Amino acid sequence: MNFLEERIIKDGVVKPGNVLKVDSFLNHQIDIDLYQKMGQEFKERFKNENINKILTIEASGIGIACVAAQYFNVPVVFAKKSHSINLDGDMYVAEVESFTHKTKNQVIVSKKFLGPEDHVLIIDDFLANGCALQGLISIVQQAGGSVEGIGIAIEKGFQNGGQIIRNLGYHLESLAIVDAMDDETGEITFR
Amino acid sequence: MNFLEERIIKDGVVKPGNVLKVDSFLNHQIDIDLYQKMGQEFKERFKNENINKILTIEASGIGIACVAAQYFNVPVVFAKKSHSINLDGDMYVAEVESFTHKTKNQVIVSKKFLGPEDHVLIIDDFLANGCALQGLISIVQQAGGSVEGIGIAIEKGFQNGGQIIRNLGYHLESLAIVDAMDDETGEITFR
After folding, report:
1. Closest-approach residue (CA) in chain A for B18
2. Those residues with Cβ within 8 angstroms of residue A42's Cβ, 6 or more apart along the chain or in another chain
3. Labelling B109: which of A130, A147, B10, B97 has CA 20 to 30 A away?
4. Comparing C-alpha atoms, which of B113, B127, B92, B119 is closest to residue B20?
5. Closest Cα of chain A to B77: distance in Å?
6. What does the alpha-carbon distance between residue B80 and residue B64 come to, in Å, rounded to a whole number?
């Protein structure tokens, strides 16, 4: 069991509806030491990839990506979830549906910040059905860049997002893969 | 002129409507070295304050807060801007109006992550009319905690948010205060 799995066992809470609450350390209150360990682990797992940019999506991905970027010495670009008046000019757009919020959002990245020269590591906090991730991959493809890797903190292995991404041949690394969880006993089973 | 002011002169773009675009290095694409310098500068400016938690607001504040938190060795809590089904239990709520997006949002923090024991440094990327900041201060006050300092990357000094906050007696430090900008010449005047 790795450091993130141990932390999930210690402080994660299983709620009905396959909700895993990790808000005390990962995505509302943030343990920065944990983020640093995650960043170092992503660097180790992607050490053979040629990466010059990290792409993530607001909001929970930003902190993880920024701390991880220190170990890669590359800039971060974060995709925005809705049209902003400050985002002028040409933009890459992908439509994604949020499992958590039951809403459709446009994922937007300015064309200024992704192009054919970019070798991208995508980072996000959760992977479940993979819609957000598919939107980010679509944006890198629109830019003509290459997805060199995908680093996820927690993958819900009982949903099919991860399987689809692996079937497509991407180098996906999830630091913790939850294969089952029981909201009555609180038990969490990792792959 | 400090490092952030120099970067704004170099890469910032003045747009009509008093919009300062810093999306190539601060809030869409992110220069992590710059974030580290900002974090070190916040630590220097607040070195005499007793801080045990950093509070920010999604989305652009999160990365700045997470990188800065490494120099304070404290956790980050980020306020969420709309009600999420993953945020159950008791919450602190404040209503804020966004200057940029012309919308009203509820700013939400779980009561689990802020309390009377907290000595809080608030961090955000921009301060203009100060509505978001007022919401964050309100939330710390609801929690019974104390606001030990407020660290802002860029303050629009020609709007009154900063003046109000200073009048209220808060220790506000803005790394760059823009007193005027001209979208025809591109000229930016710092305080």
Report:
1. A86
2. A68, A71, A72, A121, A123, A151, A173, A175
3. A130
4. B127
5. 4
6. 16
> Beta partners for B115?
none
ipTM of model: 0.93
> What tokens were used for B121?
């440094």
Task: Output the CA angle A55-A58-A59, nearest 5 degrees.
Answer: 130
For A119-133, give the DSSP string: EEEEEEEEESS-HHH
DSSP H or E stretch at residue B137: helix B131-143
B62 vs A contacts (CB less than 8 Å): 58-59, 62-63, 66
Tokens of B143: 């929690």
Residue B112 and residue B115: Cα distance in Å, rounded? Answer: 8
Torsion angle of the four alpha carbons B107, B111, B117, B122, in this order, in degrees rounded to the nearest 10: -20
Can you give the pTM of this predicted structure? 0.94
- Which element (helix H / strand E) includes A20? strand A19-21
